[in-house]
Amino acid sequence: MSIRDRIAAADEAYGALRALGRDPSALEFGAVSSPTEALLEGRPVTLFGTNNYLGLTFDPACLEAAAAGARGFGAGTTGSRIANGSYAGHGALEREIAAFYGKAGAIVFSTGYVANLGMITALAGRGDRILIDADSHASIYDACRMAEAETLRFRHNDPANLARRLERLRETPGIKLVIVEGLYSMLGDRAPLAEFADVVREAGEDVHLMVDEAHSLGVLGETGRGLAEEAGVEADVDFVVGTFSKSVGTVGGFCVSDIEGFDRLRLLSRPYMFTASMTPGAVESARAAFAAMQARPELRARLWRNATRLHGGVRALGLGTGPEASPVVAVKLPDPETAVRVWNRLIDEGVYTNIALPPATPNGLSLLRVSVSAAHEDAQIDRALDTLAAIGAEFGLVAPDARPRPRRRAALRVVIGDRDPSEGATGRRAPPPTGRAAPKG
Amino acid sequence: MTAEEIEREVIALLAQHVRNGHVPGPETRVMADTGMDSVAVMDFVLDLEEALDIDIPLDRLAEARTVADVVREVAGLTAPGGDGKETTA
Fold this sequence. Notes:
The complex is a heterodimer of chains A (441) and B (89). With 441 residues, chain A is of the alpha/beta class. Helix content of chain A is 41%, strand content 16%. Chain A is globular. Chain A starts with a helix and ends in a 5-residue tail after the last helix. By secondary structure, chain B is mainly alpha-helical. Chain B contains 3 helices and no strands. Chain A binds chain B through residues 134, 141, 144-145, 150-153, 155, 161, 164-165, 168-169, 172, 358-364, and chain B through 37-40, 42-43, 45-46, 50, 53-59, 85, 88.
């Protein structure tokens, strides 16, 4: 196959989507004015397709920290921490994250994807076994391939299936690393972590448990440490990995652990060694976000209030969605073509969501992935539900009278259009335009 | 478990997963003939592992195009002492 053939294959895969309207992989926001508002095709859209769970991307303290980091240490590090040295902020961030989790050590990585590559390849290699949930994120699959360990998939969220596999491996030598996620990004469902922890504990000392809390950091647990905290099994989790690109509102990744010698794993991790380290701006922004997460638990409370409002609203429309409220509300649609058309119509009407289609989705589902933030206001969520109801009715998916109030799109547009754009959706003033005009990564 | 028994199991399970009415046989091409996408194939493999009480490592079937190829790989995994660990590519 030539390069031309490869490109043609990609064109063919996406061509059908493009023919129905916008290319979901190539949207460009002309401006972003708050965690929930942006300009797309020159028109305002409300953002329901981010992972900005705590709404911290425009938090004044995070923005100021990012700017101060860049002014103090430069726009980039221009190299890796192994070859070119760490900056003071890298170590400070690691110490603060370790303290937040109550763990002995933390390592930060350049992105969440790199955190999974870096940790999984450092922990297991040829002759070892990695057991992953079938619905794992692509970064986990890619890491397993890179690790060259034998990779076994167990059924999604099925501790009994994992237990059977570990039983078959009982006499097999080598490291066994079990990996699950806290909150799954497509359907917003969480792992039965206490049961997984029981299975791993009973399987023996050579079996280790890693939890990817990418979507659950700042979202689950009494202090926002994620599903392990919520499930009361933090002591059973050997490695927590996560990202700064969701609740933390910047970019980067991390792992925390209590295992002895954890720090030296850096030297076994090519994705740690051979890529540029986090920029000073991202480091300082992450530090400010972890501080905000701890100082302002009301952000998490607001997120859950919003999640419940959105999830309840989608259910009330009679659309298929996940069984429990979650910051990720998956709206199940009958087929990919309908999903693409509904997604396009929502954007036409000023509501930006994500679309997820097979084979990127579990069980061949065609989904709108609607995600909510602590920064959303009730009126924004209600307007999105009104819009979804109206468009659902256009496609015969929602009863015409599913929403109690008549649709008042024009009136709502005026309300949103009249808002002071410098006022963040949480009601706090955003910093001056110089801060907000920073290019998006 | 004999190759014939494995083949029967593979074909019976595949028949539950095909999306286009194709009736699978030994020469069926697992993806090209069945209307299944890559994730559907992985789900089929999960069912096969359960039915045969074996583990089929990820990418072990990457080169397997037909039912006969799958049967050959699985037979290698289920043969006494033939868990395939030494021959993993």
